[in-house]
Amino acid sequence: MRRAVDVLRLPAMLLPGPFLLLLVLSGPMRSEEVTSSMQDIMYSPEEWQSVTMTRFARASAVGPRYVGVASSGGLLFYDRMQDRWSMPLTRSDGLPETDIRAIGREESGGFYVETRRGSGVVEPSEGRFRSDPFASPQRVRRAELPANLFAGPRFQFLGPGGGIAGPADVRAEIMDVTADEGSGLWIATWGLGVGRAELRARRLEMLPHGLWTPEVRAVAVRPGALAAGGTGQQYGSGGISRWERGRDRWEWDLAAQEPGLLGDRVWALAWQGRVLWAGLDGGLARRSVSGRWKTWTTAQGLPDARVTALAAGEESVWVGTGRGAAVVVSDTLRWIGLPRSASVRAVAAGQGGAWFASSLGAFVWRGGGSEGSLARLQHPEGRLGSGADAVATGDGEVWWAGPMGVLRYQPTEGTWLDVPPRQPFRPGEVRGMAVDGENVWVATMDGLHRLIRSTGQWFRYDEADGLLDQRVLCIALHEAEVWLGTPRGLTRFDTRLRRNSR
């Protein structure tokens, strides 16, 4: 059974203490899109966690160990002892709203939180959010900034009234300045997140967190690291956000500051070991372990300037574009014969080749990147005639999804196998697919669909189940984690914490 949960669960690091009451009010009201109604939490919050765009910060509240931050992308806590952020707490975790207007200290040791849709107290001792519309924390005076601070590479302090300049020529307004018990100041900015200033040394260290843009159209995960990218259609800039999960360190790769990166409109990402490949408007880009970017365009043989899909093998990287496909082997790119009229929507490597889902149907390149042959797959019932939107490999099988529904192919025998029935998807509804030993996952514009292979049961997940947005634009698997890109950020579903039949 599904159980209702009406509390906000916080990281175990939040501990009670004799805190003084402190409130930092928000600056001018600015918000992202607000959902029309609150939701009942119908899941265990430990299962679902989200990463959002938190660089638009309004205010901070400083305690002996933790700094709380009110941002447009959720509630953040910075552990001063461990020098790391927690995962943001969002509406997916039970807050009345993800867009936080104000944060303060509460007498019992917790943090007061205010949103447009309600206010309350985060009680560290209980690990939950408690609604309290009558809470009235004490106002405090904003701390004063010095005239000069040295901000280090990529950032520049422009003075108390000038804000902070950062990547992609962003000039962020300073929304709030809060002093700690020593000689430190915590600076909340509208566009570059939070910085920590040390007054004795006159140094400012920015502490990036979260996504550069909330729209995630591509996500790639490897042990210890994650990369996410989008086109930035609603926020003026896409770019790539990289997260070293072990050190909880965020970095943003933007064309304006990275020589060799073609642009910021990102459609596909893939890890090849520690090397990151990106499919962009304009071509293909590769980030080496040392951090340098190399690019390929139509001048180097790409069939089309827009790279829409990527799959990395041990020696080859398969590239899908708006007009055909290519492969890169040892820095050499070549077209592999897919018709130029075929718009590639997804590509998967494994099971003896590379598999392409396209507007013209399903194709397979059998062999390695240096040599092989291309073939078009035909379904005996003609179910690939309307094209394929997604493909994934696993357990000796190849799975396809699109307007034809979900199909399963056994490549060694060349046979199509039965799939537990479900309603067919609408054209363009499927945005990604992934397969593990127990499940088949289908990302769609109407939620995440899951087939439990052992039982043949289909389930669907949406915002009531923990997603930031039911429009799922991409999907990636890492061990028992399912990572889902949406227009509002990333959501992680950890299936190891599953506590009910779903």
The percent of residues in helical segments reads: under 10%
Largest sheet at a glance?
6 strands, antiparallel
| Number of DSSP strand runs | 43
Which structural category fits the helices and strands?
Answer: mainly beta
- Beta content comes to over 45%
How many helices?
0
Cα radius of gyration in angstroms? 24 Å
Show unreliable segments. Answer: 1-41
Shape: globular
Sheet with the most strands: spatial strand order = 11-12-13-14-15-16
Mean pLDDT: 86
Beginning-to-end CA distance, first to last residue: 8 Å
Main attributes of the structure:
502 residues; 43 strands; globular; mainly beta; disordered N terminus; six-stranded antiparallel β-sheet; five-stranded antiparallel β-sheet
The gist of it:
With 502 residues, this protein is mostly beta strands.
Give the secondary structure arrangement, pairings included.
Blueprint lengths: L21 E3 L23 E4 L5 E6 L3 E6 L2 E6 L4 E2 L14 E6 L5 E5 L2 E6 L4 E4 L24 E2 L6 E2 L5 E9 L4 E7 L3 E5 L4 E5 L10 E5 L2 E6 L8 E6 L4 E5 L12 E7 L2 E6 L2 E5 L5 E4 L10 E6 L3 E6 L2 E6 L2 E4 L8 E7 L2 E6 L2 E7 L4 E6 L12 E5 L2 E6 L2 E6 L4 E3 L12 E6 L3 E6 L2 E6 L4 E5 L12 E5 L2 E6 L2 E6 L8
Antiparallel strand pairs: 1-7, 2-43, 3-4, 4-5, 5-6, 7-8, 8-9, 9-10, 11-12, 12-13, 13-14, 14-15, 15-16, 17-18, 18-19, 19-20, 21-22, 22-23, 23-24, 25-26, 26-27, 27-28, 29-30, 30-31, 31-32, 33-34, 34-35, 35-36, 37-38, 38-39, 39-40, 41-42, 42-43
Structure description:
This protein is mostly beta strands. It has no helices and 43 strands. The strands form ten sheets. It has a six-stranded antiparallel sheet with strand order 11-12-13-14-15-16, with no helix packed on it. A five-stranded antiparallel sheet has the order 1-7-8-9-10, with no helix packed on it. A four-stranded antiparallel sheet has the order 2-43-42-41, with no helix packed on it. The model is unreliable at 1-41 (pLDDT under 50).
